[in-house]
Write a structure and sequence with these properties.
Chains A, B: InterPro entries: Tscrpt_reg_PadR_C (IPR018309), Tscrpt_reg_PadR_N (IPR005149), WH-like_DNA-bd_sf (IPR036388), WH_DNA-bd_sf (IPR036390). The structure is a homodimer of 197-residue chains. Chain A has 197 residues and is mainly α. In chain A, 57% of the residues lie in helices and 8% in strands. Chains A and B meet through α2, α5, β3, α6 and α7 of A and α2, α5, β3, α6 and α7 of B. Chain A binds a DNA duplex (28 and 28 nucleotides) through α4.
DNA sequence: CTTTTCATGTAACAAGTTACATGATTAA
DNA sequence: TTAATCATGTAACTTGTTACATGAAAAG
């Protein structure tokens, strides 16, 4: 798949990148990361497996949007640390100005919840929503911890988020995640209350 | 693609269905729908195009999980009204007991928001978040309207949602959507305030 | 007069997942 | 001793999107 993108060029010789590729470039704007790092960090924004990331990275490298340095390690396997190039930044800047596509949420719990009035028993429903509530709580714990870590870091000068800080982007995304799971947890708790009474 | 699923059988001769297939069966538990109807109604829960729905429906029909009646229309094209069969309900019931996979959210705005601290100008940021806020408001309007329509319908006996009603499932999903976009809108407004001050 | 809605389908392609492949270190 | 973590890659497959194909009615 990666190979195909590398070859697919517009008439002017401009490579066409997909959202995942722009996502990788976005993550690389502040720091250098290995393919392994990127695979983990991209999950909250755009779920993808390493088998999709690695070929895409070599493709971005061939196109000159990223470059890597091979880091030899003793205790762990060697790794390639990727950095965005000026061409990559330029490509990303163009994309940022394009209005984003509609967000896509795929959640099978919604189908199962839909069946609550018909073929799902309240018993099964309780199980489903208790599990999801627990999932939300674990996400909230994690995000809270991350937010606090940023607020205590050296690059975070004031109590309120500062636009000029490179941490600003990460901060508002953690905040987004927090609000998302907060709302979902409340929903789960309200549905559970309905299933009882 | 649909053809492949129709042929892929476990050793015991049991067809393997994907989430989209179970989603279609879920929607068919209360009412009969055409492929066209299903394509529209499934969007909020699991985005899919008609080119994916139609072959899947014929596949489900071949496996005996749904059945259709051909409805001839004068002013509009003829259509196939699909209904779930007993075998389909049994298949769905089995699936409902299986713990659901993690929800997958893919939203390119998140990447663009991430770049706010680095290469996105506050000007561009404002545009992005104002557009998303408007999108959320339109969704909230739509969902509010739908919720009110249910509350005023004949099948909705009391002021609070009733578990036994077949409307219960739809109601809690509309509620979920409402909370989701409410939280997202607040986030957009808070980020916009940060971009100003 | 052009676009949207209704309605169903297929073909070609892009995107995403699962499985295969390797291998050392470390924690449970 | 089993599993997880780190680290990179490929092959085979499934899932999802775009484009092609048709055509009448209604709304702007």
């Amino acid at each position: 798949m990666g190979a195909l993108i590398c070859q697919s060029l517009l008439m002017e010789g401009v490579a066409i990148l997909n959202t995942l590729a722009y996502g990788l470039l976005s993550l690389l704007t502040n720091e250098t990361y290995s393919g392994y790092d990127l695979t983990q960090r991209i999950q909250p924004f755009w779920p993808a497996k390493h088998s999709q990331i690695y070929p895409l990275l070599s493709c971005l490298e061939q196109e000159g949007y990223v470059r890597y340095e091979l880091i030899k390690q003793n205790d762990k396997p060697d790794k390639k640390m990727y950095a965005i190039t000026d061409a990559g930044k330029e490509k990303l800047r163009e994309w940022l100005a394009v209005p984003p596509a509609e967000p896509a949420l795929r959640d099978e719990l919604l189908f199962k919840a839909f069946c609550l009035g018909s073929i799902v028993s309240p018993q099964e429903g309780r199980q489903l929503f208790e599990d999801r509530a627990a999932y939300c709580r674990s996400k909230l714990d994690y995000l809270d911890q991350k937010k606090k870590a940023i607020q205590q870091s050296a690059e975070w000068p004031s109590t309120t988020p500062v636009l000029n800080s490179p941490m600003f982007g990460i901060y508002i995304l953690l905040d987004k995640g927090y609000r998302r799971f907060e709302a979902e947890l409340e929903w789960c708790e309200d549905v559970l209350a309905m299933l009882e009474g």
